Amino acid sequence: MSSRKKVAILISGGGSNMVSLVESMGSDHAARPCLVLANSADAGGLQKAATMGVPTAVVDHRPFGKDRAAFEAELVKPILAAGADIVCLAGFMRVLTAGFVGQFQGRMLNIHPSLLPKYKGLHTHARAIEAGDTVHGCSVHEVTPLLDDGPILGQATVPIHKDDTPDTLAARVLVQEHKLYPAVLARYAAGNREPLSFS
Ligand code: GRF
């Protein structure tokens, strides 16, 4: 009987994607949440995780200044202690070095609010509106050392309305994120890496 895969979820803020992922991992799911880890004690998702009964941890990046490797040497400890098989970045806003990624490559996912490879990095909604795009969306991808660049595991599209602001568009994309990430994780944890697309 194969045991369920253990999933560590890394957050920086409200953790709405983390909530969707945790809620999706019912007893029939190939995975279960083992840790929610934040880079700030102020991350609102920490309380939500605790309420859902998921162990939490905080490794604040600020004391480490620009020493990313020193921060990551601490960040990795609770992930290893929890015995995570899969790491899900969910609104995690720190850039990870190749050294950290290398420890989890092939078992680390991220959700990014654009139709990759378009709009890697920040302010994706504003950039799509600025460009006059008619569709936007979100992508779940495997994490590789290059930012927002790994193999795409799933995408969901939303239309851009002519009166959209970055905030109204972001809200529409977030609804799709909350559907896409759990759907991709369920397949990924069961060993299916076929890309999934929602329109
Ligand atoms: C979302 O837009 C997500 O795509 C991005 O961070 C934002 C907030 O995510 N990575 P969450 O509510 O903290 O999950």
Q: How far apart are the termini?
A: 36 Å
Number of DSSP helical runs? 6
Largest sheet: 8 strands, mixed
User: What string, H for helix and E for strand, traces the elements in order?
Assistant: EHEHEHEHEHEEHE
Structural class: alpha/beta
The poorly predicted ranges are: none
Q: Which strand order does the major sheet show?
A: 3-2-1-4-5-6-7-8
Radius of gyration from the CA trace?
Answer: 16 Å
Structure description:
With 199 residues, the chain is an alpha/beta fold. The protein contains 6 helices and 8 strands. The chain has an 8-stranded mixed sheet, sandwiched between helices. Helix 6 (166-189) links the parallel strand 7 and strand 8. It is globular and about 50 Å long. The mean pLDDT is 96.
Secondary structure: elements and pairs:
Elements: E1 5-11, H1 16-24, E2 31-38, H2 45-51, E3 56-58, H3 68-81, E4 86-89, H4 98-104, E5 108-112, H5 124-130, E6 135-142, E7 152-159, H6 166-189, E8 196-198
Parallel strand pairs: 1-2, 1-4, 2-3, 4-5, 7-8
Antiparallel strand pairs: 5-6, 6-7
Which structural traits does this protein have?
34% helix, alpha/beta, binds 5-O-phosphono-beta-D-ribofuranosylamine, 199 residues, globular, single chain
Task: Give a brief outline of the structure.
With 199 residues, this protein is α/β, with parallel strands linked by helices. The chain is 34% helix and 23% strand.
